[in-house]
Structure formats: structure tokens, C-alpha cells
Design a protein that fits this description.
Number of helices: 13
Shape: elongated
Distance between the termini: 13 Å
Radius of gyration: 25 Å
Number of strands: 16
Structural class: alpha/beta
């Protein structure tokens, strides 16, 4: 029986994926084998020695201490793509709303209460909120992952000309992308072509301030920017200056800050991207399946700090080893399995930066003594026998 601790409210639809005969799910577990979390801050949390995995029901993992988890042999999962449709729908909605000045117009209408000449006031006042259609306009999409590719495809269907930039596009994302999306190999080449720019990349030291004074200077005058990925991807000072000069005519974002609230042409929503029951269910289901498969079978899918490793069982017992990515590890591991007289039925080894994971199915004397010997290898961090 594995104990799973839940932080935040995890969708019951996801928790239902954890077999009650194998998993004890609780909010107050003292020494859990796994943690399911959404937004709770774990950065300063002390983890018990038997904690094996943390699954984040969402894409971002800036609330989890990844380096410390790697050092302790704790696999951290996220749920890429599970909330992609929710975010993409919001982006398309705000693309249209921002083009038609919906937010300002709706707020203005609220002030008409009690006006005896409301019909005439409406007809006269609507001129202040004239916008433009998006059909025939050009959209630039920075980042063509699960969300960016959906936005690009939807914009194509709405009659827009779409350019996409992503130097790291995955094969899966490329297959899902409309053939009508023009792929740009250089961001600077794409920016001058676009009436709208939307950004869909993770927040990393290398992506901070992707939209900055230099990139904005390359854009068309009057460009509109959409940011529903992370607030830090857009340099606030550069954006405000560009709006003052007219270089940027509108900014739609899911990340309010003191500096941008109340500014003309800026529409903020309170981080609504994944705030739908459907997205919460999808994220919880994926997180539960990931942590379940790892605890039961040692398979790793969608980990942010460990390599992707999964294979069907081949018989016997399964040996799972988290270790540093150093030369000679495979020979040290197989030397001990040979010494124990094991027959290896199946074996896989993969690495991710400085971390590696070796998983093998073996028949023979797979026992605690072997686990102790494997754990004694200096570069080994954690050994599990399933």
C-alpha cells in the first residue's frame, strides 16, 4: 500500500484513478510515498526519506525545489498539455476581445444605469470602442507546443495568416500543426510581419524578457501582444514605453501587476488560463496516472527532473536505479547482477542532464542484499525493487 498526500484540492476525477487497494490518499499523511500538488509552495518543505515522487497537476513547477528533489531521488512530474485546450481557448477569446475593445466597452456600459436616453447614448458612445476584425490579419506565435500549436491552428481556421517560431518544436507538436502555419527559423524575421504576437514558452532564465525593447523595436507599429504563458516573458518597462509611443496598441495578459493595472490598452485577467473544471480534471487524471505508474512499475513519464523511461514488464522482479549520469555506471550495475546470478530479461538506461535512470527486469535472487550493494555504488541515489 502506497500513501499519497494531496496538497490543494485535487479533482476527484483524478483521485479515482488511484486504486483504493493500492493507494491510501490523505491530506494529512506524515510520511507519504507520493505527493499530488497544484499550487502549494514546496520550496522550503523538508521531505521525508521515503518520499518517491511529486506530481504537479499543471505544467509549471516553480513551486517545487527540483535540484533538491533530484539529489534525494524524488521524481517530479508535471502534466504538459492537460490544460492546453483551456489556455488556447482563452487566448483566442482575448485575441478577439482585445481587437474589439470588449473589456472597455462592457465597463462603459455599466455606467449607463439610470440613463433615460440609454439607446441614444449607446449609439453615440459606441464610436469610442470601434475595433477591427482578425480575419486577414497576421498572427505570430512564439512557441509551438501543446498550447501554441492549438492557438495557431485555430487562428488559421478564423482566417488569419499565421507564422510560428519554435527552435525546439517536438515531433508530436509538428504533426499536430496545420501545414498552413509558416514556420520561421529566426524570431527577428517573424516579428516585423505580425499584427498580433502571442507567446507560449516556459519561463526559464533563457526566456525571461523574450519580449523586450529590442524585439519590440522590430515589430509593426500598433502591434498587439498576448501573454498567457508567464508574466516574466515580457519586460514590463519596455512594454509600457512601447505603448506610450504607439508601437504597441494593446496588451492582453493573464498576469496582472501593479505596473500595468489601469493602463489604457492593457487588459488583465486573474490567471484564468487553466481555471476550468475540465482542465483541472485533465491535469489531475494525468498526474494520478503518472505517479501511479511510477510507484507500481517504475515507469517515468513527463518528469521534469528525470529522463523519460517506460517499458512493459518482462518477468521476474524490476530493479529501478536513480543515479548520477557518470561513465561506467552500467558496468558497475551489471557486475553486481552477474555476481548475484541474475538473468536480465530486459534493461533500459536513459539520462537527462546530470541525472540518469536504469531500469531492468531480472529473474533470480533479487533481494534486499542486492539492493544494499547497488545503493553502495557512490553515484547511486536511490534503488527500488518492485
Amino acid at each position: 500500500m502506497y500513501t499519497i498526500k494531496t496538497l490543494n484540492a485535487i479533482s476527484p476525477v483524478g483521485l479515482a484513478k488511484l486504486n483504493k487497494n493500492l493507494f491510501d490518499v490523505a491530506v494529512d499523511a506524515d510520511a507519504p510515498d507520493g505527493i499530488l500538488v497544484r499550487s502549494a509552495d514546496l520550496l522550503n518543505t523538508t521531505f521525508n526519506d521515503n518520499l518517491l515522487a511529486i506530481a504537479r497537476a499543471g505544467a509549471g513547477v516553480n513551486n517545487i525545489p527540483l535540484d533538491r528533489c533530484s539529489e534525494q531521488g524524488i521524481v517530479v512530474f508535471n502534466t504538459p498539455g492537460a490544460n492546453a485546450n483551456a489556455v488556447a481557448e482563452l487566448v483566442i477569446g482575448m485575441l478577439i476581445a482585445g481587437s474589439r475593445n470588449v473589456a472597455d466597452a462592457a465597463q462603459w456600459c455599466q455606467g449607463l444605469a439610470g440613463d433615460p436616453a440609454m439607446a441614444k447614448t449607446v449609439e453615440k458612445g459606441k464610436k469610442k470602442f470601434v475595433g477591427n476584425e482578425i480575419k486577414g490579419k497576421t498572427l505570430g506565435v512564439i512557441g509551438l507546443g501543446a498550447i501554441g500549436s492549438r492557438v495557431a491552428n485555430c487562428a488559421i481556421e478564423l482566417g488569419m495568416e499565421v507564422y510560428g517560431y519554435d527552435p525546439y518544436i517536438s515531433i508530436e507538436a509538428a504533426w499536430n500543426l496545420s501545414s498552413q502555419v509558416h514556420h520561421c527559423v529566426n524570431l527577428n524575421d517573424m516579428l516585423p510581419l505580425c499584427d498580433y504576437i502571442t507567446i507560449h514558452v516556459p519561463y526559464l532564465p533563457t526566456t525571461k524578457d523574450t519580449i523586450n525593447a529590442q524585439t519590440l523595436a522590430l515589430c509593426k507599429d500598433g502591434v498587439k501582444i498576448l501573454n498567457y504563458a508567464r508574466g516574466e516573458l515580457v519586460n514590463t518597462a519596455a512594454l509600457l514605453e512601447a505603448m506610450d509611443t504607439g508601437k504597441v496598441s494593446g496588451y492582453m495578459t493573464d498576469f496582472p501587476s501593479e505596473a500595468i493595472l489601469g493602463k489604457p490598452g492593457i487588459v488583465c485577467t486573474p490567471h484564468l488560463g487553466a481555471s476550468t473544471p475540465e482542465a483541472e480534471d485533465n491535469c489531475a487524471v494525468m498526474a494520478a496516472q503518472e505517479i501511479s505508474d511510477y510507484l507500481k512499475n517504475g515507469n517515468i513519464t513527463h518528469s521534469v527532473n528525470m529522463p523519460e523511461v517506460h517499458q512493459p514488464r518482462a518477468g521476474g522482479k524490476r530493479i529501478c536505479i536513480i543515479h548520477k549520469n557518470e561513465p561506467g555506471m552500467i558496468s558497475q550495475i551489471t557486475a553486481l547482477t552477474t555476481e548475484a546470478g541474475l538473468n536480465i530479461e530486459n534493461m533500459v538506461n536513459k539520462s537527462k542532464k546530470n541525472m540518469a535512470y536504469t531500469m531492468l527486469d531480472a529473474t533470480g535472487a533479487v533481494d534486499a542484499r542486492l539492493s544494499e550493494k547497488l545503493s553502495a555504488i557512490p553515484a547511486v541515489i536511490r534503488v527500488r525493487i518492485l
